[in-house]
Amino acid sequence: MSKISKFFKGGGSAASKGRGGPSPQEALARLRETEEMLSKKQEYLETRIERELAAARQHGTKNKRAALQALKRKKRYEKQLSQIDGTLSTIEFQREALENSHTNTEVLKNMGYAAQAMKKVHENMDLNKIDDLMQDITEQQDVAQEISDAISNRAAFADEFDE
């Protein structure tokens, strides 16, 4: 079975059909395969167009009928090439969208893991204990500031004595 018929008939693995659809990796691989196949067909058509153009030039005025036929084939090949370009563009767009969706899914999954980890870390914390601790810290900082202020004030022994 050709790659194109496999692609359109969904000739995938039995495992992917059992899950309800292909995985993102499988779909990306198939899209890349299709892109490669279409690129090869593009190259083939481009060489055929060149050949037909050369044949038309060769026949030129000597054999107008053969030259005209070569130009008609060239035009047909150019039409096919244009269709392949459009198809490739669509496939590239779909592949990029799938890659972005897969990336977004991974990011979301990792964010979920991080949220669970944060929840686990915060399980052992009690807001009341944290509030009490912060009050204790503030009180101790105030005491330290008072001590620092008391130490740093100049001692004015002469001014304090009453004659």
TrEMBL record:
Compositional bias (Gly residues): 9-21
- Write one Pfam family the protein is assigned to: Snf7
Q: Which GO terms describe its biological process?
A: late endosome to vacuole transport via multivesicular body sorting pathway; protein transport; vesicle budding from membrane
State the GO CC annotations.
cytoplasmic side of plasma membrane; cytosol; ESCRT III complex; late endosome membrane; multivesicular body
**Record-linked InterPro entries:** Snf7_fam
Q: Where is this region: Disordered?
A: 1-26
Keyword Transport listed? The answer is yes
Q: How does it sit in the membrane?
A: Peripheral membrane protein
The entry's localization annotation reads: Cytoplasm, Cytosol; Late endosome membrane
Question: What keywords were assigned to this record?
Answer: Coiled coil, Cytoplasm, Endosome, Membrane, Protein transport, Transport
Checking Gene3D superfamilies in the record gives: ESAT-6-like
**What does the sequence similarity comment in the record state about its family?**
Belongs to the SNF7 family.
Q: What is this protein called?
A: CHM4C protein
Species annotation: Haliaeetus albicilla
